[in-house]
Amino acid sequence: MLRVKAGDVDRMGLLFERYHRRLFGFLYHMLGQAEASEDLVQTVFYRMLKYRHTYTAEGEFRTWMYHLARNVLADHVKKNRHSAHHTDVADWSEKIGGGVRADDILQREQEVATLHRALAHLSDDYREVLVLSRFQELKYEEIARVLNTTEGAVKVRVHRAMNELKTIYLRIEN
Amino acid sequence: MNCEHAKEQLIDYLNHELPAADRSAVAAHLEECTECRQELLALQRVWGMMSAMPVPEPSENVRPAFYAMLASYKEEIQAKPSSWATVWQWLQEVFTPQHALRLAYSLGLVGVGVAVGFWLNKQQLAQTPDNQQLVTLTKQVADMRQVMLLSLIDNPSATERLRAVSYTKELSNANPRVVEALLSTLNHDENVNVRLATLEALSQLAHEPAVRQGLVQSLAHQESPLVQSALADVMVQLQEKRSVKPLRRLLNDPALNEAVRGKIKESIQSLSNGQSVPTTSNKPYDETFHPTPADRNTNTAV
Q1: Which of A169, B94, B112, B202 is the most buried (most CB within 10 A)?
Q2: What InterPro entries does the record point to (chain B) (predicted)?
Q3: What is each CA distance from B56 to A72, B31, B60, B117, in whole angstroms?
């Protein structure tokens, strides 16, 4: 990224190849909409180019990326306030499958769909820490840097979010 | 370790974020506590599912879209190598045909506004012709009065003729025809009152040489003592020297009223001395006559 900042814009391609899936995953889990998430991936990378001078070597690139992604996400949510987080369950069923028995597929589909709905019911703050820690596999320390908070606070939030998710999940399941 | 503390650690336990010492403490508590074990199982289930949750792949559109964006961005930053170029570009944008057209349109509108303003202003100025019109109208009314005078002055009724003469009062200057008509009336009208009124009207117009001359000549035509007397007064007022001769001729007329004779003598004297005597034109005619020695003297001198 430092080379991108220095003017070697082509290097951005490398970063894109390395990170765009992860970024897409984050946006997808946060939004629940594949198409919109793709558009936002684009927006995040555009902002990386535009605001490359704000990048400092001190922070890790990943942290910076999530920073930008959160801002883009916030803008997007603000713009589409009326359309609430909606889950595209059909998307999920397409991605699952291949060599598994029909019953298993059905059961897993249901479970995943339920979990997804439970995630959707979670507040944005809770969902965010879960997505970052569980799906993006960030350490608490990293999450704390992305959210501009302390590691302890992140830990507490993850803990509460997980309990909340579990409760919602069980309620939907039954 | 109590349950509450243990539950707080469960996530980290699952997440493998706990230091080894804490980890074994939690494990020890789980051995004893069924409730916490169940809690762990539930969490584990959800937790495990989350990791099993497939992360969808972004579609194939993302990559080409990104590279297209990157390429256009590169063009963008190359397109503005210096601030001068930016300024130049901005100027060019301002003066594109479309903008120029808009500018022309705006200027056109302003021009129309100015033109309308001028026109309205002119309209106001054009009201001065109204004043001219008023002058013209006044003149026309005056002319009308003169025509009225001319048409009425031959009226058989003395009252109408008097009215005709009265029209001249508001005339500052009369046309030759009116003067002629008035003089004719003065000389030939049968009614004394009409003649007196005419004389008065003419005296107002005495600044005109034709009127003066007419008045002087009129002396010879007058037979009424009243008119003779009034005429003599007018002559004195006007200091008309030419009237002395006709006045003297009047004195030779044996039929002349004695009172008038005295009056005329006075007038001649006044005119010869070049002094104005107090006007007596409005004094009622006095039939009584008291001849004075001076009068006689004057008479014999003539």
Answers
A1: B202
A2: Anti_sigma_zinc_sf (IPR041916), ARM-like (IPR011989), ARM-type_fold (IPR016024), PBS_lyase_HEAT (IPR004155), Znf_put (IPR027383)
A3: 20, 38, 12, 71
Q: Which two tokens stand for residue A23?
A: 């970024």
* Helix ranges, A32-173 (H): 34-50, 61-79, 89-95, 102-121, 124-130, 140-147, 151-173
pLDDT band for A7, please (50, 70, 90 cuts): low
DSSP codes joined into one string, B130-187: HHHHHHHHHHHHHHHHHHHHHHHTT-SSHHHHHHHHHGGGG-SS--HHHHHHHHHHHH
Closest C-alpha to A29, from A114, A106, A130, A97: A130
Q: Is B72 on the interface with A (CB under 8 A)?
A: no
Q: How far apart are CA B53 and CA B63, in angstroms?
A: 24
Contact A112 B55 (CB under 8 A): no
pLDDT tens sequence across B266-288: 888 888 876 554 544 444 444 44
Q: What is the pTM of this model?
A: 0.47
Q: Is A115 on the interface with B (CB under 8 A)?
A: yes
Return d(Cα B39, Cα B13) in angstroms, integer.
12
**Domain span holding position A126:** 92-174
Contact A20 B8 (CB under 8 A): no
Go through the domains of chain B in sequence order and give each one's CATH number: 3-50 (no CATH), 145-218 (1.25.10), 223-302 (no CATH)
Interchain CB distance below 8 Å, A91 and B47: no
